[in-house]
């Protein structure tokens, strides 16, 4: 049985992906790692402070990592976060029924 703290972490990850902009950010990062925060404003037509808040939620949920490149902060998908999501979704997937034949 999982500890309550682990459940809170799982819920935070799922909640983070529950917003269309954050899900879009994750998809964009999967296609192009090391993307700077300023690049997302053009993709989603939202302000820089809004993008920063979405990235903060994703970072705190353990789904993205940051790296400083000069004065810019660049983001990438955190593989361990995706591994945890995969484990979580696999654990709640019901067994497949055999095809009737």
TrEMBL record:
Alphabetized Pfam families for the sequence: HTH_5 (PF01022)
SMART domains membership: HTH_ARSR (SM00418)
Domain HTH arsR-type: 2-97
Keyword list, A-Z: DNA-binding, Transcription, Transcription regulation
InterPro entries given in the database record: ArsR-like_HTH, HTH_ArsR_DNA-bd_dom, HTH_MetalResp_TranReg, WH-like_DNA-bd_sf, WH_DNA-bd_sf
UniProt KW Phosphoprotein keyword: no
NCBIfam families in the record: HTH_metalloreg
Protein name: Regulatory protein ArsR
């Amino acid at each position: 049985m999982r500890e309550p703290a682990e459940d809170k972490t799982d819920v935070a990850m799922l909640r983070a992906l529950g917003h269309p902009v954050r899900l879009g950010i994750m998809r964009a990062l999967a296609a192009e790692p090391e993307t700077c925060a300023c690049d997302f404003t053009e993709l989603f037509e939202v302000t820089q402070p809004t993008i920063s808040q979405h990235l903060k939620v994703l970072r705190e949920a353990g789904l993205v990592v940051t790296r400083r490149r000069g004065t810019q902060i660049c983001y990438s998908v955190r593989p361990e976060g995706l591994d945890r999501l995969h484990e979580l979704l696999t654990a709640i997937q019901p067994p497949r029924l055999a095809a009737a034949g």
